[in-house]
Amino acid sequence: MQEFLKKYNLDDNVLAAGVSGGADSLALVLWLDECLRPLGKRVIALTVDHGLRPESGSEAAYVHQLMKKKGIEHHILVWQGDKPKTGIEEEARLARYRLLSEWCQQNGIRCLCVAHHQLDQAETFLMRLQRGSGLNGLCGMQEVSEMYGLKILRPLLTVSPESLKKYLQQKKIEWVTDSSNNSDDFLRVRIRKFLPQMEEAIGVSPKRIVDTMAVLRRSRDYIQSQVTKFIKQHVRFWDECGVSLSLNVLSQQHDEIIYRVLSELIRTVAHSDYTVCAEDVERLQKAVFMPRFRGATLGHCEIFIAQGKIWIVPELKLKTKMPKKIWEDFVASHLEYAKSQLPYKLRVALVKSKMKVEF
User: Fold this and answer.
1) What is the pLDDT of residues 255-273, one digit of tens each?
2) Is the same domain home to 347 and 250?
3) Which domain holds residue 296?
């Protein structure tokens, strides 16, 4: 763990960890406690009671008693309100991260550790392959990412679940088993059951998949470095209200760079944590270079061509046209825009953002 924290320059004295009561998360929090306590640091265990199963309350109580026995601070967070009838797995995941992040932010905790391991990573690869994901998706979960303003740490991504169970067995720690983990209603469960067959038939093990994902990440990181370099050199940011770049310069880039630049800029302008659907970006990529392209809406952004440039601004949804006088008043107090020949939609975005005016 010390190497993991050093790798990502994480010097926090307190880390939180999500603990469901399953083997993976119990092993994570106990291992964190072992590693952090000698350094004068500590871990706080957080359990989300989704209330989706009758036994969830007793499982959370078991974790609480175990953490108390081990001298680890523990809190139970309850998912209140009506529960969804469909898309339960995804809704529960979002609710879990929302509750965890809210608690962490309210208590000054910057980093949350979760117990995703090698098998989870391999399952993620196959799930995303089934959905037609591109390079980014097939790279799987990252060791460090951000969600709801919180750093999510996954220090177990190369660790097998079997070794985590052995760790608990050595400590004579029992764990609970979530019955939904065996339900074929969920794609992840069906993939989990299929993986042993795939390893036996063609020798593709979870470890082999995870090792391949590491190779893919190297390729992704190099391409992303080129995208970042291109954006820095060729894209103009109009505060946080839009971006523009030369259509001719963009057209000279490799298709993969064009795709990633468009995807990244749309995500940035929309202030979104997620990139838009790959197929939609690919359609936009083809359309913007066509003579008859008049604009498109994608990812809560408007994309259009003007003055030989491609412009991306937030989706406006105007009720009325902006009066000319408002722009004149805006320029009078923002002289940096006085000589800029800006398209109407960017002018509106700037006025709406800085003057808090609605049309």
Assistant:
1) 999 999 999 999 999 998 7
2) yes
3) 235-355
